[in-house]
Design a protein that fits this description.
The protein is an alpha/beta fold. It contains 7 helices and 10 strands. The strands form 2 sheets. A 7-stranded parallel beta sheet has the order 1-10-9-6-2-3-5, sandwiched between helices. The two termini are 18 Å apart. The protein binds fructose -6-phosphate.
Length: 237
């Protein structure tokens, strides 16, 4: 696992957006795995800027999101479909039929990803409790896409960030790619910004083997993963 610290979130996001733009330009067809939440927002802004100024075309890109809340209306502000549309999809020339989200019949998503050639690059965030996707502590290393229960901590964190603190408005379940699904990606970039993530990054640096109480530790077994974070997230020794 490679760790790279940048001074700021913006510098890190620019770096990753350049990697993605280069891959998009140099590949006839590319499958990107995408995350939602606060972490990738600056990255998506940089990618939109790149599309505007450098004309990187997303016409041959297919996207696969990590997760979606279970039972939400995909047009509502709570949904990750809407988040992706607002943050990225509607600003680039991506064909909406090439965007994919996990569906309640989970296994179909893993089959779909495989049948379309697998994920070339997966972008991940990390929860303060070490979740990746919505694979909460206790998740199985062999888990595939499925419906999962969110922990009270995740509900609280997401309520504060996206639901004006109203925990009762946060869906209690999600459909998430599993840990094994994520590990199938050919390359992974995990992003972490801010001091709230310092503990998780410190744990990831120390991890040597998978421990279910810190799901991100599965990533120590991946052959091509880079963890990119800002100074604040790297500040826990
Ligand atoms: C989102 C996802 C989650 C988030 C994590 C961090 O698609 O899979 O694992 O990456 O909860 O969320 P933020 O970025 O809001 O700190």
């Amino acid at each position: 696992m490679k760790f790279i610290e940048f001074k700021t979130e913006l510098e890190a996001a620019k770096h990753v957006s350049e990697i993605i733009a280069k891959k998009i330009k140099s590949n006839h067809k590319i499958n990107l795995g995408l995350a939602t939440g606060s972490t990738p927002i600056t990255l998506y802004k940089c990618l939109v800027e790149d599309h505007k100024h450098n004309h990187t075309s997303w016409a041959n890109v297919s996207t696969f999101n990590l997760d979606e809340y279970y039972g939400v209306d995909y047009k509502s502000d709570a949904s990750y479909h809407k988040f992706m549309l607002d943050q990225l999809f509607k600003h680039v020339d991506l064909k909406l039929e090439n965007t994919h989200f996990p569906e309640p019949k989970g296994a179909d998503f893993d089959k779909l990803i495989k049948s379309l050639g697998g994920i070339d690059l997966q972008i991940l965030g990390i929860g303060v409790n070490g979740h990746v996707g919505f694979n909460e502590p206790g998740s199985d290393a062999h888990s595939l896409t499925r419906i999962v229960d969110l922990t009270p901590l995740t509900i609280k964190v997401n309520a504060d960030k996206f639901f004006a603190g109203k925990m009762n408005e946060v869906p209690k379940q999600a459909i998430s790619m599993g840990l094994a699904s994520i590990m199938e990606s050919k390359e992974i970039i995990l992003l972490a910004f801010g001091k709230d993530k310092a503990d998780a990054i410190a744990k990831l640096k120390k991890a040597t083997t998978f421990k279910a109480d810190f799901p991100a530790s599965i990533l120590v077994n991946h052959k091509n993963i880079t963890v990119i974070y800002d100074k604040a997230a790297g500040s826990d020794l």
